[in-house]
Structures are given as structure tokens and as C-alpha cells.
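Issue: ligand-bound run for flavin-adenine dinucleotide - logging full I/O for the record.

Environment: standard queue, default settings, no custom constraints.

Inputs:
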Amino acid sequence: MTGNHDVIVIGAGIVGAACARACAARGLQTLVVDAAGVGGGATAAGMGHIVAMDDSPAQLALTRRSQQLWSAIAAELPTEVEFERRGTLWVAADEEEMQEVLRKQTVYAAAGLETEVLDARSLAEAEPNLRPGLAGALRVPSDAVLYPPAAASFLLRQAMDLDAKLLAPQRVVAAANGQVSLDDGSRLYARRIVNACGAEATRFLPELPIRKRRGHLLITDRYPGFVHHQLVELGYLKSAHSVAADSTAFNVQPRQTGQILIGSSREFDAEDSTINHALLGAMLRRAESYLPGIGRLRAIRVWTGFRAATPDKLPLIGPWPEDASLCLATGHEGLGITTSLATGELVAAEIAGVRPEIAAEPYLPARFGDGIRTDSESMLFGEAAYD
Amino acid sequence: MKKDFDILVVGAGPAGIAAAIAAAENGLRVGVVDDSPSPGGQIWRRGTQPPTAARRWNDRFEAAAVVRMMGWRVIDCLRLTPEGGILRAECNTPGVQPADLHFRHLILATGARERFLPFPGWTLPNVMGAGGLDAMVRGGLPIEGKRVVIAGTGPLLLAVAAQLTAHGASVVAICEQASLAQMAPLALALLRQPGKLLQGAKYRWATRKTPFFTRCWPAAALAEPNPGPGSENEPQPRLQAVTLHREGKQWTVACDYLACGFHLVPNTELASLLGSRIQDGFVVTDQQMRTSIPAVWCAGEPTGIGGVDASLLEGRIAGLSAAGKTEAARALSKRRPGMQAFARALERACRLDPRLRELADDQTIVCRCEDVRMAALRGRSGWRDAKLHTRCGMGPCQGRVCGGAAEFLFGWSAGHAHPPLYPARVSSLMEEAEEEAMAASSSHPAIEPE
Amino acid sequence: MTERTAQDISINSIELSVDGVRVRVAPGATVAAAVLTVDARTRTSVSGEPRAPLCGMGICFECQVGIDGVPYQRSCQILCSPGMRVTTCGEPSLP
Ligand SMILES: Cc1cc2nc3c(=O)[nH]c(=O)nc-3n(C[C@H](O)[C@H](O)[C@H](O)COP(=O)(O)OP(=O)(O)OC[C@H]3O[C@@H](n4cnc5c(N)ncnc54)[C@H](O)[C@@H]3O)c2cc1C
Ligand SMILES: Cc1cc2nc3c(=O)[nH]c(=O)nc-3n(C[C@H](O)[C@H](O)[C@H](O)COP(=O)(O)OP(=O)(O)OC[C@H]3O[C@@H](n4cnc5c(N)ncnc54)[C@H](O)[C@@H]3O)c2cc1C
Ligand code: FES
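Outputs:
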């Protein structure tokens, strides 16, 4: 394991696994180091919605590209990845939100994404358990659902088939100038180091513009057919989540097992994994306001996870201005499962020195300036993002 | 619904009953909440027969000024401070609103469950726990004339055999995995507790016609031959016989039920959720049964598997201590060391033979909720890794069954407990804690699910 | 309808139905015991195996049945009451 590698990827979450796979595919000698196991961080806590998102053109480009990459490997994914093209329904509660449906459709069409507008009746037919009186929805059929830890495992296995190596459990305590220091005192060397530590990325780069953003999820017992699509409200657009305040949104997902995953919540400055009962309650009541029968389902478990949030809701992918050996692959907020594949593609292209499939500029850490940031209070974090 | 108590006891087994009585007799408002429909815990559970052995305790419990919530399970902790806290409980009867139980002091008396080990055929209908079959019979399962094989380890096997025999079952074999030599020190420890020794002798006398094998365990449970496809009302496979293994020899015994339990696993989920210190699987307490968390006591099996007498003693100590009767509690706690010596002897006597790890083959299901087979678990690095990548322990029992098996098979220890402690209606997690509501007085009638 | 009995039936026995079969049980009997007098199983596992009660004390969830239309009830922790409608092994219907 010691000696020189082309690339050391720190973190075996879905982003690290995707980076390793893409690097190995480019013939780079790759080592992955993780403090725990594979896919045990945010990847184990996320919803696994593979979703095209249009908060900004750059976000749409990244999610769209990722979706294409997931489609390309869909046939190879083993059953435990539970990949299903469920499609998303962006649910509009009223006419104002219906306008947003139409706007979204135009934007998606321009990006080559086919969608379908459902009126109130066809929405009720598609999802009979939604409350009556909703205005309609935008159906995005290409969106999918998967089980993230198994997907991370699969991506890493593919990387290892291409001679990548895994070192775990082994905690990295410092990484700079081509040198990675481990918990046990040993050192590893590589031409490039990829920091794919998710919300933990600031541990050895405290100046990164990343804040932890905690989210709650609840999984129910098996109720096959209760919902058919991933259901997401458009309401959060106008319910004006303030930057600082905690927020919830209706976001419900059918799992292949027949279970229902209920989200979502967002809160800053919550550092431990305990349940915030007030926020959990608000999240569930929000879900119930769309799916009146959901209160009667049986919950099996509630948990929390941490998103790595950036001020402009775009990830940090690419070289870090202060250390040419470091490459970042973090800051994916609520979209890292989706965007892992395009992230891997961008990282591998950067390290191999070739032109990537999509423009890398919007995601470059350098967009925050050279010193990036010095004072977390001055960071302006955007509105609540999706998931 | 909101209820206010000075002292809230979770679990109405011997420990919880003793704790509640001790606290109530000191004039405090006491509530007891238990998942079961009637009090008594695993050993005094009532069922269709009137309580006998424990009538004295049951009578005292019935007479005590205690709010009894039977058929309610604690699903979450909403708040916990040194001044008290709030637990949320859900009623096993659908349609009843959840209850927020406010307390100043909390006593955990959550008892223990059986340890189950996977072997081929153990998922067949009519293969049950030893205590499990006993509980089913007390709950009205007709057992008269049925052939039963009892297997596993510990004094529970004999107790269950005697109980089932009394109900008219024909116990065809008792299989104890331990050797006689391994069990001998337990008999010595029992000498110091003549009551227990006498009880054991009574049990053995009651089952004197039944062969008792040591170093013996079930190698496989066998199903009735399937009649094959075609018939419309196709009978489902069910237990027909058990292949027993002893010192390299195997033979098959026909039976209707296999009752199989490999000693007990403490129920520490609630203690874990509250963040109390747990060491080697047991809740750590001081001599007054105080846990590492202010305002929380623990008594009975979660602190060590010591049998009913230890549970009663610890319950009384906890009840007195929580009621502020420190001196009385301290006086009683002088009797604990003897009980703890028995618990240690019991643990050694029940230590599982490593060969039991070989019982499950690749195809044997380990996690019964998610049907995860042995082959999928081999090579996983730990409980969490297995959970994430195989779904083991992710079902409704949340690892209460497979966790105890995995601990023995692979040495994995289960992680921290998450809410809800038991599956709960989504609506039960929707509301924040009710702060203002009517106070529960000790004269309140028992809250029963019906 | 066939009729089965569990335990000795006294005058004050309870009548309920299990998958449409009438069952009479003694007061204090659990739903799990009532089910086992009609069928050997309570539920179908996620891979299709028939399952029946294991622990008898509320922790294994093998004894889950539908009671009066509500799925996923642990039948070992619930006492029979007159007129109960119990369904076993069904598809998890929505409550
Ligand atoms: C509630 C919730 C719902 C979500 N839903 C979705 C969704 O539907 N769709 C979607 O696309 N995304 C979703 N996300 C976001 C997604 O889960 C994350 O963006 C993604 O998992 C990030 O992956 P990662 O590999 O960057 O991080 P992680 O999965 O956190 O991986 C980081 C890895 O780095 C390791 N590590 C950390 N520090 C060190 C160290 N010092 N040394 C060695 N290793 C270290 C950790 O052990 C871990 O394995 C959701 C997130 C949350 C919290
Ligand atoms: C069938 C059987 C026979 C036994 N026979 C003997 C014997 O003859 N002699 C002997 O010494 N020991 C015997 N034992 C061991 C016996 O369990 C203990 O000695 C004694 O019952 C322990 O008392 P306890 O109060 O600690 O726990 P338990 O009796 O296990 O009671 C704990 C109670 O807590 C409840 N509970 C747990 N968690 C929750 C929650 N979250 N919410 C609500 N309620 C909860 C449970 O439903 C249970 O009723 C036997 C055990 C079994 C299973
Ligand atoms: S038999 Fe185990 S929960 Fe009912």
C-alpha cells in the first residue's frame, strides 16, 4: 500500500467510489482510503433519488450528465443496487405552482429532458393517495431511485477490477503536498490527492466553504403501491425558507422493497446525529398534508445524515488553489448520490489532463477566490436546496 | 395524552413490579408501562391461566396505587434532563392516541429476551423459542398430547419442560448444549440458594420420564414433505422432526414443536437510546441501581441475567432509591453480591459451545425479517457494514433476533439504538411533546388497551 | 364455516374469526394462539416462506397479522376480543 500512487482518494462514499472508478478507468494507479467502511457516511443516510435539478444551469448540466451516466450503467447494476426508473412527480399545489411546472418543463426541454405535465385529474390517477385538490405535477420519467451504499460498493468493486486498491478502516489525519498521513503514523504518497470526505472534508481543510447540513429521514414498513413515483413538492420554492432557519419539505420515495422513505429536513449547526423531534414532527406533518394516509403507516426507523453544503449550492470539484496536489470532490449537499458519476468524470479528466464532457468551471473551488474564506459567519448560504 | 409521574417504571416483570410497589408504598405517583397485555414479565405472564406462583406479588401489584399501562410500548425519548424527562409510548391497540409520559425519575426494568441461533430449518412454523412456546401455551395454544423437543441452554429448558408437561405435552427430549462439567458450578451456586435448587429438583422430577441430553443440540429442523404443486389448498411446510446432534452422532426425533432457546439477551435498547453506559452488553449501575445518567435507574435482567430473585431485589432497591429512601436501599443492596455470584455462575454454565457456530450453512436464514442468509454475512466487517450491505437487522425487529445470533456467530456488537424503539405509527412521531395537560393522579384507573 | 376451539371452552369464551374461520378461545388467549388453532403460520416472509410465532414475547415480529383491517399487528401481544377479524399471510394491505 505504501509507495507511490497516481491518485489517493480519501473517502469511500459514493463520490469517492465514483472518483476511484473513473480514475482507474483512465489507467491511473488509484488507492482509496476510508476511516470506516464503504458507503457508510452520508451515502448510507441519503435517499438515493437520481434526479435532474435546475436550480442553476450548472446544476442542471451536472445532474443531467450524471443521469446519462447512470443510464449507461443501469443494465450492469446488480439487483442489490435496487435501481428503478420510478420517475419524479414535482407536485404543484396551486395555480401559481403550476406556472412553475410549465417553466420547469421548458428548462428541462432545452436540456434535452423529456417531461410530461399532469393536470389535477391525471395526477390523482397516477397517485391516488395524494390529497384531493392539488393542481397538477411535472413528471420526469428519467429520474430514478437506487440504494446508495450498494451503489457505492458496486462502483468501488469496478474500480478494484481495474486495479484500484482499498485501504480501510484507516483514518487520514492530514493531506497536503502529495502526502497523506494516517492515524497510525504511516504516510502515503501520490501525485494527486482527492478529498472526497463529504461533510467531513473540512477536518483537514478547515477553510473550505462547507457547512454541515443535517437531514432527517424516516423509513416505513412495506406498503407496496402506496406511492409509485418519487413525490416532491414545488411548494418550497415560495415557502421562502430563510437562510438560517430550519426547513422541511415534502419528499417521499417508494423503495423497491415496498417501503416508503419520508423526507426531508434541513438544519445548520447541528453537529450530532440525535433526532430533532420538533423538526421531525414538522417534516412528517408536511408529508401528511400531501399524503393524508401516511400517518397510519408504520415507521421502522428514523435517522439523520449530513449534507456538505456550499454557499452557492454547487459542489467543489477540481484543484484546490492553495495546493496543486489536492483535488476536491465534495460539497454535494443533497445531490451527491446523483452527481457522483459526473463528479468522478470531472475529477479523472482533471487528473489525466484531458477535456471533460461538461464544462468544469462552474464547480471549480477557485470560484470562491484564492484564500476561499476565512470566516464562516460571512458565508452566504443559499436557499434550501432540494431533497 | 399526557401523564405525569414522580416515578415511571418501564417493564412490569418482577423487577418492574417490585420497583413500582416499593416506590408507591412511599407515597409517590408511580406509573408502569409494559408492552405485554398483562403484568408479570416473562416468568409470571398470566395468559389464560390465573397467576399462581407469583400470586403474592401480583396481588400486591394490583393493590398498589400505581397507574398501570399494559399493552403500551415505549417508542421514543423526547426529553431527558437531570430533573426528569418524557418518554413517548404507543398503545398496541390501533386508534388510541400515543401517550407522553413525564417523569422525575425513570426505572428501566425492560428484562431480557431469548437468544436464538440459526440452524437449518429454524424458520419453519412450530419451531419456537423455549420461553416462546411456554408463553404461547400460557396465551392459550393447545399443547395437550403434542410432542415437544426442548433444546438450547440454561435452567429455562427444565422450567419450560416442567410447565409444558403440566399442560399435557409429551416432552420427548431435552437437549442442553453445555456439558455436565460446565454446569456443575451452577449447582454449587444453587446450593447457596436452596429455593432455587429445590425448584430445579422439582422441575427435573416433573420431567423425569424425558431423556435429558447434555452436549446435544438440534442440527436441523425437518419439514413435512411438500405434497407438490397442483393441489389448490397446498398445505404449507411445517415442522415434522428434528435431527439432534451429540458427540458426532446424529439421530432424528419426530415432534410437533421444537422449543429452542440459547439463554437470554438483555433488553438494553431503551438504555442505549437514553445514552446510559453499557458494558459487555449490560447496563452499568451502582449499588443503588443508578445508571450513568442522572434520574435513570435500571433493575433486573438488563444489569445481568440473575433470575427472578435478583430481579425482585434489584427492583426493590431501585424503587426505594428512586423514592429517596437511600438508607433502606443501601441496606438491601448488601444482598446483591450473592445474587451476582449466581449470575456469573449462570453465565459460565450457559457459555455457548463454539461448534454451535457451524450449525448454520450458507443457505440458512440469519435475519428472519429481511431473509438474509448466512452466505451474505460471511466476510462483512461488522454489524453496521452487514446492515448496510445485506439489510441484516433492518426489518421490524431491528436486530433483536439476528443481533443476538450475529454477536455469537461473528462477534459483532449491535450499534446504538435509534428511535422508534419499536415500529410505531408515523403519526405517533408527528407531534411534539405535550407540555401542558392534566396530571395523572395515582388514583387513576389502570389504562388497559381495551 | 368450520369451527375450531382453543383451550377448554367455557360459557364465557370469546369468538373471533381467523381468515374467515370462526374460532372460540378462552378469555386471556392471545391472537397468536387463536391463529395457530386454524393455521400453522401467521405471515409470509419477504422471500415467500411461511412463518409462525417464534418468541411469544413481542420482539421477533414473526407473529404479525392483520386485525380488523390494520396490518402488521403482533398477535402474541394482543388478547382476543369478541368479533375480531384476523387475517394472516396477506399482502400488506394499506391501513
Ligand atoms: C437526508 C439526506 C437525503 C439525501 N438524499 C439524496 C438524494 O435523494 N439524492 C442525492 O443525489 N443525494 C442525496 N443526499 C446527498 C448525498 O447523500 C450526499 O451528497 C452523498 O452521499 C455524499 O457522498 P460522499 O461520498 O461525498 O460523502 P460520504 O458518503 O459522507 O463519504 C465520505 C467518506 O469519507 C470518509 N472519511 C471522512 N473523513 C475521513 C478521514 N479523515 N479519513 C478517511 N476517510 C474519511 C467517511 O468514512 C465516508 O465513508 C442526501 C443526503 C441526506 C443527508
Ligand atoms: C418462559 C421463561 C421462564 C422463566 N423461568 C424462570 C424461572 O423459573 N426462574 C428464574 O429465576 N428465572 C426464570 N426466567 C428468567 C426470567 O425472565 C427472569 O428471572 C425475570 O423474569 C426477569 O425479570 P425482569 O423484570 O428483569 O424482566 P422481564 O420479566 O423480562 O420483564 C420485562 C418487561 O419489560 C417489558 N418491556 C421491555 N421493553 C419495553 C418497552 N420499550 N416498552 C414497554 N415495555 C417494555 C417487556 O414486555 C417485559 O414484560 C424465565 C424466563 C422465561 C422467558
Ligand atoms: S411471536 Fe415474536 S413478536 Fe410475537
